[in-house]
Amino acid sequence: MPVLVMKFGGTSVATLDRIRRAAKRVGVEVAKGYDVIVIVSAMSGKTNELVGWVNEISPLYDAREYDAVVSSGENITAGLMALTLQEMNVPARSWQGWQVPLMTNSAHSSARIEEIPTDNLNAKFGEGMRVAVVAGFQGISPEGRITTLGRGGSDTTAVAFAAAFGAERCDIYTDVDGVYTTDPRISSKARKLDKIAFEEMLELASLGAKVLQTRSVELAMRYNVRLRVLSSFEEQSDDAGTLVCAEEEIMESNVVSGIAYSRDEAKMTLISVADRPGIAAAIFGPLSDAGVNVDMIIQNIAEEGRTDMTFSCPTDQVKRAEKALQEAKEKGEINYHDLVADTDVAKISAVGIGMRSQSGVAAKMFKTLSDEGVNIKVIATSEIKISVLVDRKYMELAVQALHDAFELDKAA
Amino acid sequence: MPVLVMKFGGTSVATLDRIRRAAKRVGVEVAKGYDVIVIVSAMSGKTNELVGWVNEISPLYDAREYDAVVSSGENITAGLMALTLQEMNVPARSWQGWQVPLMTNSAHSSARIEEIPTDNLNAKFGEGMRVAVVAGFQGISPEGRITTLGRGGSDTTAVAFAAAFGAERCDIYTDVDGVYTTDPRISSKARKLDKIAFEEMLELASLGAKVLQTRSVELAMRYNVRLRVLSSFEEQSDDAGTLVCAEEEIMESNVVSGIAYSRDEAKMTLISVADRPGIAAAIFGPLSDAGVNVDMIIQNIAEEGRTDMTFSCPTDQVKRAEKALQEAKEKGEINYHDLVADTDVAKISAVGIGMRSQSGVAAKMFKTLSDEGVNIKVIATSEIKISVLVDRKYMELAVQALHDAFELDKAA
User: Fold this and answer.
1) Residue of B66, B72, B99 with shortest CB distance to A144
2) DSSP per-residue string spanning A340-398
3) Does any CB of chain B come closer than 8 Å to the CB of residue A49?
4) Which candidate, A241, A348, A375, B198, has a CA 20 to 30 Å from the CA of B33?
């Protein structure tokens, strides 16, 4: 029988009533003829409680014990979900990570999945089990200890199972009903997308549309797992939510699919850097070593032999960046007059695979912002994305204007 | 290094502070040179919460899923205890049942321990680990699924580990500071026993002194595991609590060690049963089939060819007993005039291994009760126990009088 993976997040299994509602959705898919693998998170709040206890006992905790403790929330939900399905006469059983076994490396608390053997679950499907309820977020290390995949790891678990079992689709049930052209709280014209390409979703996710874990989208793209994001709080039709899929599946699309934004980006400028071959490496090497996630980089030649270097990074990494650059300067590795941090900016991005084949998108974006009197501080582009930094006070205005200009309220 | 097993019940690990206090006790034993195996229960209240959820979802639950859910409380405590010990610089790690592995049969929710291989833990002790924190109450079935040992199973886990590892002693930390000559709430003269024989403890436990699970005492007796019951809420000396041990270790003891009582016993009398060979089997067979735990049995010949048959059973099984006997009568298997249930009785027992060699204990017991005007309704005796049923209103009086008569307030 075809396999479907369904993942329910913490808010979707927060109470016994919600577990029942989720189980009903599973029952609908079973009735359609699917063998279903359900991936569950911990009931919302449970994991935070456990993490809080671990931190209170031991701020520099042993990650192996952390994993043993925090993985228990998912085990509870898995058992309760299996019982709920059985009560609805759906043959189901629960699986903890080590029982599958979902094999990971030994990087406790942020382990990577190495293999998911399919024989154990398939044997049970062969015996008439219709639903395997698997505790998300966890696995087992080569040493036989429990590992976790890091926060949000249940999305990744779901996609990995879909890939391993060749599932027809991986449905991610969450508390939003899909992916929007922009944040509906900022633009009332925001429209839910029926489909979006993996590449677009990756850009939107890393830009702050926190519907799916970036890692799970990457995995889905690599194994071509069709991902559907939908709400567990609404009655569902077959085409509910947003399908995240390969570009080839999307017949028609707007040039721009969505407008993303981020408030948590800071602009940092090194003024009058002594320019020489290898200077970029000398600046960004220490930043990388210090764990600073540099996003946009711009270099302007200011005068002969000297240059200004501007980059952006998350606001909460500004102090770390300043320290790393200061130390590099003291060691004589780089030389600059001044370092200016501007944390009062926002990043606005237009994302769309259509940009690859269509020119004029950047020009239209710049003109739109200019018409609204929004000054652009930094520009960066990739194949399917144009990002600008603007003063934070213009953020909502810029998002709304761009959403209008690219007519995202209208389907392609 | 010699091995010590220490078990902490739910109230002893109810909060992070209490886990810290328990960990300090463990640290004291490690400092003495022991390799320690710590068995932990779930934080108090946790297991009840999980059991409540399972019952709410599915009153006739799949015991395999029940076990998967309710075993998670112990896993949490095990990890938290290991972290707390590490924070005190004691090399420790947690073990879930399947990791040891503690192998059981497949009788989910009341599984029996089949084997505890020692190689995994011993390998870690060999590498410098000083404390193995093991989640109590759980194991793994031959099918690779999680099993639980039934309520109170953590005591049994502790004794089984002590037997498997040849531990010097198994310390059971709980919320009482030992085993008393009788319930201190009933007699202010109740005295804590320093030592008590396994056989005596078994009689006291099954008679209502609910300090230790009967099953764990049976196991301790079979493998001669020295069990110490002590409080986790008091500073401990080396001879704190009560040692439950083989008779040979007890040099001096009173003829009677303790006076136990039970309010939950009912007296049932079948009046004028047609007497014939096999009549006892015809009566008690159906009761056994109905799950009625018959304790005392008395037969009186009332008239030629007819007899009265009296027995006791737990009060909450009276309805079940009546139904079973009524059905046997309707089928013509037995014949009686009437069935009278008296639930207004209490059972009082004097227990002591000294009775084996000393006569006159029963006579002294009966005279004491008679002097107090307490009428005895049923008498039953075993090698080390004399039990009587009396009107419930005399229970406290009878316990106090017997405690005085056998001078239990004085050590031997």
Assistant:
1) B99
2) EEE-SEEEEEEE-GGGGT---HHHHHHHHHHHTTPPEEEEEEETTEEEEEEEGGGHHHH
3) no
4) B198
Report whether B381 contacts B362 (CB < 8 A). yes
Identify from A20, A65, A85 which residue to disrupt to test chain B contact, counting B C-beta atoms within 10 A and taking the largest count: A65
- In A, minimum Cα distance to B77 occurs at A69
Indicate yes or no: CB of B94 within 8 angstroms of CB of A68: yes
Query: B131-143 in b/e burial notation, b at 16+ Cβ within 10 A?
Result: bbbbbbbbbbbee
Alpha-carbon span B76 to B193, nearest angstrom: 34
Per-residue pLDDT of chain A (412 residues; tens, 9 = 90+): 899 999 999 999 999 999 999 999 999 999 999 999 999 999 999 999 999 999 999 988 999 999 999 999 999 999 999 999 999 999 999 999 999 999 999 999 999 999 999 999 999 999 999 999 999 999 999 999 999 998 679 999 999 999 999 999 999 998 888 999 998 889 999 999 999 999 999 888 766 556 788 889 999 999 999 999 999 887 767 678 999 999 989 877 788 999 999 888 899 999 999 888 888 889 999 999 998 989 888 887 767 788 889 999 999 999 999 999 999 999 999 999 999 999 999 999 999 998 888 888 999 999 999 999 999 988 988 889 999 999 999 999 999 999 999 999 988 7
Q: Which amino acid is at A314?
A: P
Q: What is the CA radius of gyration of chain A?
A: 24
- Residues of chain B contacting residue A99, judged by C-beta atoms under 8 Å apart: 144-145
d(Cα A58, Cα A53) in Å, to the nearest integer?
A: 9
Which residues on B lie below 8 Å from A40 (Cβ)? none
Find the length of chain B.
412
Q: Helices B46-57 and B72-87, interaxial angle, to 10°? A: 160
- The token pair that represents A150 in the structure block: 């890091």
Looking at beta carbons, which residues of chain B come within 8 Å of A94? 65, 68
In this structure, how many other beta carbons lie within 10 angstroms of the beta carbon of residue A76?
26
User: Could you report the predicted ipTM of this complex, rounded to two decimals?
Assistant: 0.82
CB-based contact (8 Å) between B324 and chain A? no
Peptide bond into A314 cis (omega under 30): no
Q: How far apart are CA B296 and CA B310, in angstroms?
A: 8
Nearest CA in chain A to B87: A58
Supply φ then ψ for residue A354, to 5 degrees.
-60, -20
B75 with A72: Cβ contact below 8 A: yes
Could you tell me the two tokens for A388? 């600008």
Helix extents (H) in B165-298: 198-206, 214-223, 279-289
Residue type, position B1, single letter: M
- Tell me how far apart the alpha carbons of residues B208 and B218 are, in angstroms, rounded to a whole number: 16
A53 interaction partners in chain B (CB closer than 8 Å): 16, 76, 80
- CA nearest B363: which of B371, A268, B17, B242? B371
Q: What residues of A are in contact with residue B109 (Cβ under 8 Å)?
A: none
A80/B53 Cβ within 8 A: yes
- By DSSP bridging, strand A195-197 and strand A242-245 are parallel
Whether residue B57 and residue A94 make contact (CB cut-off 8 A), yes or no, is no
Q: What is the three-class DSSP state of B146?
A: strand
Q: The domain B3-175: what is its CATH number?
A: 3.40.1160.10
Going by their DSSP bridges, the two strands A385-391 and A345-351 should be labelled as antiparallel
Q: What are phi and psi of B299, to 5 degrees?
A: -120, 130
3-state helix, strand, coil in chain A (%, to 5): 40, 25, 35
